[in-house]
Amino acid sequence: MDVPTTLIRAVKGTRDLLPPATEVWNSVEAAARAVFRAYNYHEIRTPIFEETQLFARGVGEETDIVTKEMYTFEDRDGSSLALRPECTASVIRAYIEHRLDQRPGVQKLYYLGPMFRRERPQKGRYRQFSQIGAEVLGPPSSGSESPLRDAEILEMLATLLDELGITGWTLELNSVGSLADRARYNEVLRTALDSVVLGMCQDCQRRAVTNPLRVLDCKVPADQPIIETLPVIADSLDEASRAHFAQVTAALDAAQVPYTLNHRLVRGLDYYTRTTFEFTHGGLGAQNALLGGGRYDGLSEAIGGPKAPGIGFAMGEDRLVLSLLAAQDQKAAPLKADAFIAPLGETLNPAALVLARELRHKGLWIELGEGSFRLKKSFEAAEKTAGRIVILGEDELQSGILTVKTFATGIQTKVPRAELAAFLAEPAKG
Ligand code: ATP
Ligand code: MG
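A: This is the predicted complex of the input protein with magnesium ion.
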């Protein structure tokens, strides 16, 4: 019977989120939902796992996500499934499967939830992490290709970050053109890489053959000076792509959303077309991308759907919370209830429950003590968990006058039961 048990811990790269930090997560999500509502987005919830094939096609066979980072497993019937590494492909699949193209106008869908990638865990990089993202897509007749959609989504993100109190973000912007522009640029790059690629990293040597565009994503320091000499994509864009991008930036200028142009921003998804973007934040260190996204006019067709141009983004909620906590000195504020009710004796436990119920129904945040506690123990427990203590003894119950102590000031007050809720709703400031 005495089998020694080893302590089971959370799997590497996964985390438990505990209070009070979960309060910060909830407030981020509440702020995001409020902003989405103002922009007329609605929530979509898709499954955590999908057929592996969806991501191979929807994210791209050649991407890091699909080649190295996906959690893929064989189901009992032999089919290959994968934990979702991102959500865009799932949203497009759902759009196609449920014929959302038949609904009027553009579809504006947002999601939030966990994603899974087998990466090397470090600050701001986990194997299970959360994204908040959105997609705007629809048939071309719905205006889904309009540069106004791009500008609107970028302006919304600027608003959301401002609303959350994230200061000092940078919006980096680029256009990777149409699929034809990209194909042309890929050839230009391939030729330019011919003479220099042997001096670059192994990954770049592979990419130079399979997908030269990906070379611009390379993070190896020694490769950077070489990459800086390569031709830029802006010179390969056709008239229509240039005009589209010019209208995106004109609308951003009008709305006074600041941005910087970054011609190397090609992003990890193979199907990005035209506008690509990232919001970065200096306070995050090496993992400085808060969110990324772009237009994907050919994605729906790539996974077997109708023509459905669109644009979307995914925001790393873990990194968002990290930057918020950094701004507040790394610690979420301790949680304190409005009041702690201390019954004086076990016979008063039922009356204490009634009083707590009364106050909670009025919207107050109440912690309930226990009648077996001595008064001193009640005070100690109350001071740790609440701003005030309400003492409920036999006298208080009979007279309807309660004794309330406000810890911040040390002041003790007699309050009639009918006025108690209003009294407790006042901030317990010193
Ligand atoms: P990175 O270059 O940092 O790996 P990415 O290009 O792989 O980012 P996306 O696929 O665009 O990232 O995902 C959007 C956002 O999701 C990122 O900007 C980041 O904030 C967040 N994110 C991506 N991977 C992780 C991870 N492993 N842990 C935490 N957040 C992540
Ligand atoms: Mg990545």
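The first strand starts at residue 42 and ends at 43. The two ends are 57 Å apart (CA to CA).
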